[in-house]
Prior knowledge:
By secondary structure, the protein is an alpha/beta fold.
Amino acid sequence: xxxxxxxxxxxxxxxxxxxxxxxxxxxxxxxxxxxxxxxxxxxxxxxxxxxxxxxxxxxxxxxxxxxxxxxxxxxxxxxxxxxxxxxxxxxxxxxxxxxxxxxxxxxxxxxxxxxxxxxxxxxxxxxxxxxxxxxxxxxxxxxxxxxxxxxxxxxxxxxxxxxxxxxxxxxxxxxxxxxxxxxxxxxxxxxxxxxxxxxxxxxxxxxxxxxxxxxxxxxxxxxxxxxxxxxxxxxxxxxxxxxxxxxxxxxxxxxxxxxxxxxxxxxxxxxxxxxxxxxxxxxxxxxxxxxxxxxxxxxxxxxxxxxxxxxxxxxxxxxxxxxxxxxx
Length: 328
């Protein structure tokens, strides 16, 4: 199979790139080659095309006459990006897989468990709105011209990011724990939350691409088990090797200090996160999420510990967390 991965070196996409190589597929990665603190080098065995996908002329020239059995796009966000992807990949692939997000469900009105049929938001948190807008562009293109989109809604998927209730998924909260500062958790920490390791998400993508999924489908991919945010905090303590006080604050209190931190909680984390995955199971019955949270959390911490340059707290985030706890 010839597969193009747009992205390919991020928290989830690096695992998908690696799994596709291990499957014996011909893997091409398209990204701009930028390295931030959490991006790994492309896996060995991948062809790498370096281009800023926002530069239409350069990207079109680089893709040339190439065709692919499948394209998996991790970077697309918003309607303009989606319209661009339709132009890039029409006639170039039999299946274009857009990695969307379960964050787009309207949790104020949706019933649990969440499924592909759950209502989608039209306003609010920018990240969720952008993914919802992109989905609409792709589905309209499929209806109008047969664009071969398959929409994949990923849940909260972690690996090189640290799953935490309030933070930026970086080293700041482990640093706070190691320095005796409180860990902030919204509400009373009993909200149920689903976490999926990127290894499990990657294996799901491989199984999906082996299947006979038809264009136009919308599928969510998450693990089945869920945890309270208190349990997630305890796993973080174990992985760091030290405990810390937990500072419980209401979502409104967090949002008053930091609208940026508050928006993701109001639109997402303050609600229970439980899924009905029967649709994906029917298509890929052999797939199961197998990475336990204890192992995944420990590996996330080890990833940061492997490089001293990663073990740097975010000063502005740390100050916001102090303010939320009333420490200054």
